[in-house]
Amino acid sequence: MSASTGPVSLTQQLLRFDTINPTSPELPCAQYLAQLLEAGGFSVRLHEFAPGRTSLVAHAGGGSAAPLCFAGHLDTVPLGVAPWTHDPFAGETHAGRLYGRGSSDMKSGIAALTCAALDLVRSGLLRKAGLLLVFVAGEETGCEGAAHLARTAGALGPASAMVVGEPTDGVPLVGHKGALWLDARVRGVTAHGSMPERGVNAIYRAARAVAALEAFHFDIAPDPLLGRPTLNVGTIRGGLNVNSVPDEAVVGIDIRTIPSQRHAQVRAELARVLGPDVELTARVDVPGLRTEVTDPFVRQVFDVVAPRLGRCPEAASAPYFTDASILTPAFGGIPTVVLGPGALVQAHQTDEYAEVKCIEETTEVYRELARRWCGA
Ligand SMILES: [Zn+2]
Fold it and tell me: Are 154 and 203 found together in one domain?
């Protein structure tokens, strides 16, 4: 392990740690990065939200201004049922692509942020502001690691702006929707399937709830960048066997919100529409993100990225949510950009890969951005 490790070989190292959420804890991967960063002059702290579910916070450099935050997650999604043609944990490269689970989402992002950060500390360029690295566990299941850091006193400290290295093909994105995932539980009374008149069928009640959800309409003006909020019924579970009246059914609802919506209000509105028989429980509840393109930090990101893209970037948004939902408000609403080397369409795919060239170029972008934002 050397401080001169490049971003591609560091991505390969990180891919060799299985950090599939929730079966393979992030601890060994976090420890590996902690050693690398400590050797490079960072002070590092590890925080666990559950045994082995370890997030890393590292800090170095700086003067009077609050540090720039580089953020990302260490966990990945499972491999899926389809077979892989490349070993998901070996870091194989072929024809300019680096394969593996998490290569795009987002171990290449973690590696690029880490290499840029180590280089900046080595060059002594962080005179005005330092760098704060926040690499969390448990993002894929609803930002658990970020939420734990946000509620742990003193874990994060201040930051002036943030880059989240999620996969964007190296294009900066200034916003994303929020997510409100609800379980709608409907109860009934069980009875023998031959005497349904003696029971109350929870599946019939759930079916009425599903029909109401399909007809549901958000009465709100679309966001100029993020468009309209959406609602999707993703799952339905109910009944134990065919010859009983089911006494419980659960409908899984995925709502993607825009910044002008308050989640508590959305939930209250749904509760009113679904009626008193339906009990709503939130499984994920994270607000959206949007930074104005006129913000000085966004202008600087656009300036740094423009030569590589061959054009000035426009305001654009991510289709997914990120840890910024938790971290940006925890830092007091700092300007935030999602920008990473992974490919947006590769996230969660079989034979996931990242372009080697984009990993190298995005590392340069991070380095130049921090040099401008944090330098004297
Ligand atoms: Zn991700």
Answer: no
